[in-house]
Design a protein that fits this description.
heterodimer; A: 280 residues; Elongation Factor Tu (Ef-tu), domain 3; Rossmann fold; 2 domains; seven-stranded mixed beta sheet; 10 helices; 16 strands; globular; B: 467 residues; alpha/beta; five-stranded parallel beta sheet
Chain lengths: 280, 467
């Protein structure tokens, strides 16, 4: 069993969970993920690592409370335990000295791109951070990004902070920065990854995204996480989760992400999993 | 124990009672119900107790078959189970899923008369009888050697290695990637063929013997083999088959197209058939096509049927060439699975939401035998046929998982990515590392994995006691 060390909502509907998982913490690297189960009857869901502490033996995930399992996880209190935290899974984001890197995060991806940005900085890159949200009140961890970035830039749908609009304005942001960008790395929902990749394509900047398809085992066995990248079918869990955003078949991935939309709400109405506050 | 007196040949192989097809196709409970003691004794008495038993040579773990059958005939079931367990620590499982018709039973002298002794059913009978007696007695354990072994993967190979080595006095830890021990016995083989309570019982037996069980631990990710070797004197890799194969035909990534692994894992490990009480969903499809002709294809087809679908098995050769066990093919036929032989899918069409809705196939004819000795299927021109489907399950095998080879130094892998291991000892090219089961051979059977585990355990023991 894995003990909850910290559990809180950091901005509306976005939750932070720190769990005792020493074996995972010891090996964790930026860009990797864990698979969790919230209770014995629970499904297995992948969540990106947002932080870890090898000495304390803890890992931290940040997630949007959007479905049945994330709802269970969000309701966990400190001291409670969950039956599965397994990882670190997937390949680490490739950290090299690229020159100037733009790290783009939205929603839970603001959390998971932080360790990537930190490692890029440590590897000698100039790091610019671009954070995206519907409104200014949804940003978090800004002081962390300030500490490692040349600049932190914002885009909000409602214009309450930084650029107004969606990530489609990326070319403008890059132009305003006035420095050549060697690489863009995006973490966040599939929609952000797609539109960010679409927006960077005309700029000719190499753009890497961390994909988040449905997974079960997370070790290559089930193949539900397959994505088309270029001409090839790849398994996000063992070949990814990072891929060239300009090569991903986004339409297919968006369809595959939605495969269980209908079923997602069923357990909300019928579950009897008493331990986790999900007694509907 | 060989008897010399002549007896009249009894050529009536006792059938094992089963749930009737029209009942069982609606539930996930076990199909075959097992022998009663009376039936078991009758069947056991058919054994001729050959002085040179050929059946034993057909068993990958060399069970003393005539001896345990003789014990049943004498109604000494306790003695029978002890004889079985000398060589096989998982008899309840092997009695159910071993292909006895190709191993021990094919060697039975009565096979020539068309009625081999039902060795597998008798094995199962003894194991089930033992379970009914309460907690099984533990075998004697050798004095501690102080040696530590890490077993990677809690499937049939790993469980066998662990069971053998713990009895020899070594300390054994099994590391399992999933949240439950058992490997393919848990995620792959369905409840109606191998009840999960039986697997849990066998795993618990190992725990009582003192094997340390660690779940949620992916060797190659959570910790490397090289790191394990710093703490353990030897490592056995029984990580199983890995990435599922697809056919690389258009439309294969549509929603509703599954690998057999995904479909079976959702049902068996995650208990999707009990959704929403268990939280992993499984769709209740209407028209399902299962691609392939092996045991896994039969398991998928019969699972989909139980979830309410009309199910077709799509196989490119004829019934004669199907690799699945005859018993499983017959079970599937009885339950109402439709077989489309000499048929090959060439593409899938989807609807506007990305769900598969049609499967286009070509019909095949059989040509000359190929390298496998089976007649090569050749497409018949102009034979394209369209089947309306809302799900396709691809059950054509797996390639080895790359996680361990890609993170371990000095471990040689073959062309297909399988770990290279000596057939007799399981020794790999890396010092103090052994391997066995599907990770070395590609997808095979439970008993072959156990056989490999047994040989590796012997070799590991030999190494540890001489170093």
């Amino acid at each position: 069993m894995f003990r909850v060390v910290a559990s809180r909502m950091i901005v509306p509907n976005v939750h932070l969970l720190t769990l005792e998982a020493p074996a995972v913490a010891r090996e964790a690297k930026p860009g990797q993920f864990v698979i969790l189960r919230a209770c014995e009857e629970g499904e297995r869901i992948p969540l990106s690592l947002s932080d870890w502490d090898a000495e304390m033996g803890t890992v931290t995930v940040i997630f949007l409370n959007i479905g049945f399992t994330t709802n269970q996880l969000a309701a966990l209190e400190e001291g409670k335990t969950i039956p599965t935290v397994v990882g670190p899974l997937g390949n680490a984001t490739r950290i090299e000295k690229y020159g100037t890197v733009l790290c783009l995060g939205g929603c839970y991806g603001i959390g998971s791109i932080f360790p990537i940005a930190r490692a890029l900085k440590a590897a000698g890159n100039r790091v610019f951070t671009l954070l995206e949200a519907r409104s200014a009140y949804l940003f978090y961890w800004e002081e962390r990004f300030e500490a490692i970035s040349e600049r932190v830039i914002h885009i909000t749908r409602d214009g309450t902070r930084g650029y107004r609009g969606h990530i489609d304005r990326l070319p403008e942001v890059v132009k305003d920065l006035g420095v050549p960008i060697d690489r863009i790395i995006i973490n966040g929902c599939t929609f952000l990854l797609k539109r960010g990749s679409d927006a960077s394509r005309p700029l000719g900047i190499s753009t890497w995204v961390s994909l988040n398809p449905i997974m079960i085992d997370g070790t290559g066995m089930c193949g539900v996480c397959r994505v088309t990248v270029g001409d090839a079918t790849r398994f996000a869990c063992v070949h990814g989760p990072d891929f060239d955003g300009h090569q991903v078949n986004w339409e297919e991935l968006l369809h595959r992400r939605k495969a269980y939309m209908v079923e997602e709400e069923v357990p909300f109405r019928t579950s009897r999993c008493n331990d986790h506050g999900c007694k509907a | 124990m060989a008897k010399t007196q002549k007896k009249t040949l009894d050529l009536v192989r006792r059938e094992m009672p089963k749930q009737p097809p029209e009942v069982r196709r609606h539930n996930f409970q076990e199909v075959a119900l097992g022998y009663s003691p009376e039936l078991a004794v009758e069947e056991a008495r058919r054994c001729l107790q050959c002085p040179k038993p050929a059946c034993v040579s057909g068993c990958p773990v060399e069970i003393n078959i005539p001896a345990f059958i003789d014990a049943i005939a004498r109604r000494d079931f306790g003695q029978g189970i002890r004889i079985l367990k000398e060589k096989n620590c998982l008899p309840a499982i092997c009695g159910r899923v071993c292909p006895q018709e190709d191993q021990c039973e094919i060697k039975c002298v009565l096979t020539r008369k068309g009625a081999p002794v039902a060795i597998g059913r008798l094995e199962r009978f003894l194991a089930d009888w033992e379970a009914e007696q309460g907690e099984p007695e533990l075998p004697p354990i050798a004095p501690p050697t102080g040696k530590k072994i890490a077993v990677v993967g809690g499937g049939p190979a790993g469980l066998t290695v662990a069971g053998d080595l713990i009895q020899l006095g070594h300390q054994v830890t099994i590391f399992e990637a999933l949240h439950k021990m058992g490997g393919v016995l848990i995620y792959g083989i369905p409840e109606f063929r191998l009840p999960k309570a039986i697997v849990a019982r066998e795993v618990d037996y190992l725990r009582r013997l003192g094997v340390k069980l660690v779940t949620n631990f992916v060797v190659g990710k959570t910790r490397t083999i090289d790191s394990l070797l710093e703490e353990f004197d030897a490592v056995f890799i029984g990580a199983g088959a890995g990435l599922p194969w697809f056919m690389s035909i258009p439309g294969e990534n549509l929603n509703g197209v599954y690998s057999a692994n995904e479909y079976l894992t959702r049902i068996n490990l995650m208990k999707g058939f009990l959704f929403p009480n268990y939280h992993t969903p499984i769709k209740r499809h209407k028209r399902v096509a299962v691609i392939g002709g092996g045991n896994v294809a039969m398991d998928c087809a019969r699972s989909a049927l139980r979830l309410g679908a009309e199910v077709r098995i799509i196989y490119r050769r004829s019934r004669q060439e199907m690799p699945a066990r005859l018993e499983e093919i017959e079970n599937a036929e009885e339950e109402g699975v439709i077989f489309e032989y000499l048929t090959l899918p060439i593409r899938y069409h989807g609807d506007e939401n990305g769900w598969v809705k049609e499967m286009v196939c070509v019909r095949m004819k059989l040509g000359e035998p190929d390298a496998s000795g089976r007649r090569r299927p050749i497409p018949i021109e102009g034979s394209e046929t369209v089947f309306p489907v809302d799900a396709v399950i691809v059950a054509i095998g797996n390639s080895p998982n790359p996680l361990i080879p890609s993170t371990t130094t000095g471990l040689e892998v073959g062309k297909r990515g399988n770990i290279v291991a000596d057939e007799e000892t399981g020794k790999t090219t890396k010092e103090r590392v052994w391997a066995g089961g599907d990770v070395t051979t590609g997808a095979a059977t439970v008993i072959l994995a156990m056989g490999a585990g047994r040989k590796a355990a012997r070799s590991i023991h030999q190494y540890l006691t001489s170093h």
